[in-house]
Specification:
This protein is mainly α. 72% of the residues lie in helices and 0% in strands.
């Protein structure tokens, strides 16, 4: 898909240009009852049995295939909840910019709206019989300070490496990301900044719930860590294809992003540590990287200048540093396994076991 086509598409949807995807209403609403039924099936164990790692079930190809299918269904259903959140956010933002653009009241309202699916997916409310299973699938819990520190450092180093990789790929392929945000000059700076933060918060948080929570937990029980992270990253990549394009460089990039977030979630046994890294990544690309993609050099036409090789070095060096940080994170998590994990303020929604 060309940059011009991308730009026209985004100009017709102000919401998508502000860092979230505005989806049609019928699909997300239709998915809400399906989410409840799916969670009930997982919780009661009547419809589908998720194979546990280390049992004779994991040796069955059919059972593993079922686990992959079930993980995909859960990811899509939870992403449907994200679709509802994105739709609501789009409507709130349009109303905010129309009625009182100088006062970003939509951000406050959206924070309250987002709290509802967060709590439900984390085990709150009816049906109580599925609460424990929903908590386990979301796995939103605190981790030891040392583990959190290494997770954030590993994620930050990986983010720098991904920035370098993205720019190298853009200059090699001349296929960039989102164009400059339309309408930014006519929107108050505070409203625009808060809108971008909230839009990124909605997408990053719900994607962590869907792919590193519900889907990856299911896969880890069937396959273990490496395969679970790989498959959930493939789901994550395909999920971004319809909005970002299926060009090989974008598919590679989103797969590696999924590997970074999935590895953090697997090592820490929590979706919490990767969420701020995901949010920081979204904001970095929306504010600093994608707006400049249209003006980047095309190496095969213009040649590789010093900045191109600088970004190559950036990607290589910070990848190595990130690998070292992930190794330290792995050691830190092993050392902390015998230490009880403190619950979040709402114990029912956050304090879960492994």
């Amino acid at each position: 898909m060309t940059q011009g086509h991308d730009r026209r598409k985004r100009e017709t949807s102000g919401g998508e240009a502000l860092g979230f995807t505005v989806v049609s209403l019928p699909l997300p609403i239709a998915l809400l009852p399906a989410v409840s039924l799916a969670v009930a099936a997982v919780g009661c164990g009547h419809s589908i049995t998720i194979p546990e790692r280390g049992t004779n079930v994991t040796g069955s190809l059919a059972r593993r295939a079922t686990a992959v299918l079930w993980a995909a269904v859960l990811a899509l259903l939870v992403a449907g909840v994200a679709g509802v959140a994105s739709f609501v956010w789009g409507g709130l933002l349009v109303a905010n910019l129309t009625i009182s653009p100088a006062i970003p009241w939509a951000v406050v309202v959206m924070a309250a709206v987002l709290w509802l699916p967060w709590q439900y997916l984390g085990g709150r409310w009816w049906p109580r019989s599925t609460s424990a299973r929903r908590r386990a699938l979301l796995r939103w819990k605190t981790v030891q300070p040392t583990v959190l520190s290494w997770a954030l450092l590993a994620g930050a180093l990986a983010l720098v490496a991904l920035v370098g990789l993205w720019i190298v790929l853009v200059e090699l392929t001349h296929v960039g990301g989102n164009p400059t945000i339309p309408g930014a000059k006519t929107t108050p700076a505070l409203t625009l900044a808060l809108a971008l933060v909230m839009g990124s918060f909605v997408s990053s948080l719900t994607e962590e719930f869907a792919f590193r929570g519900y889907a990856q937990v299911t896969l880890e029980r069937a396959f273990g860590g490496v395969a679970a992270v790989t498959i959930s990253s493939l789901f994550f990549t395909l999920y971004h294809g319809p909005t970002q394009g299926f060009f090989w460089s974008k598919l590679l990039f989103y797969f590696l992003v999924g590997v970074v977030f999935g590895t953090i979630a697997f090592l820490t046994k929590s979706t919490l540590p990767a969420s701020p890294v995901h949010l920081a990544g979204d904001l970095t690309f929306f504010f600093l990287i994608w707006p400049n993609d249209a003006t980047r050099r095309f190496v095969w036409r213009d040649g590789a200048d010093a900045s191109f090789w600088l970004y190559v070095a950036l990607a290589v060096v910070f990848t190595a540093l990130a690998v070292l940080a992930f190794l330290r994170l792995s050691r830190a998590t092993r050392a902390s396994r015998a230490v009880p994990v403190a619950p979040m303020p709402d114990g029912r929604a956050a304090a879960i076991g492994r």
